[in-house]
């Protein structure tokens, strides 16, 4: 696994975040409560595939069909 970068939810993702993940990251952020502290995202790479994990336990990954999906974090 290669560690990528971190950023706060609601802010512009760093340039290193692949375009293929950005729309799903935005969709997840739209569902976050407005009155709660903003969690952070962590971008990592596993076997060359990007994974964006939110501190709340949600991760955004590329599914088998090549489309970004969100799901609860799994070990």
Q: What is the topological layout?
A:
Blueprint: E1 2-8, H1 19-30, E2 40-46, E3 49-54, E4 58-62, E5 68-72
Antiparallel strand pairs: 1-2, 2-3, 3-4, 4-5
Task: Describe, in plain words, how this protein is organized in 3D.
- This protein is α+β, with helices and mostly antiparallel strands and 75 residues long.
- Helices cover 16% and strands 40% of the residues.
- A 5-stranded antiparallel sheet has the order 1-2-3-4-5, covered by helices on one side.
- A hairpin with a 3-residue loop joins strand 3 (49-54) and strand 4.
- The chain is globular and about 35 Å long.
- The two termini are 13 Å apart.
- The mean pLDDT is 90.
Number of strands: 5
Q: What letter string, H or E per element, gives the SSE order?
A: EHEEEE
- First-last Cα distance: 13 Å
Q: Tell me the overall shape.
A: globular
Helical content (DSSP H or I, runs of 4+):
10-25%
Strand share of the residues? 35-45%
**Number of distinct helices:** 1
Spans of at least 5 consecutive residues with low confidence: none
Give a short account of the largest sheet.
5 strands, antiparallel
| Helix/sheet category | alpha+beta
Radius of gyration: 12 Å
Oligomer category: single chain
Give the strand order of the largest sheet, numbering strands 1, 2, ... along the chain. 1-2-3-4-5
Mean pLDDT: 90
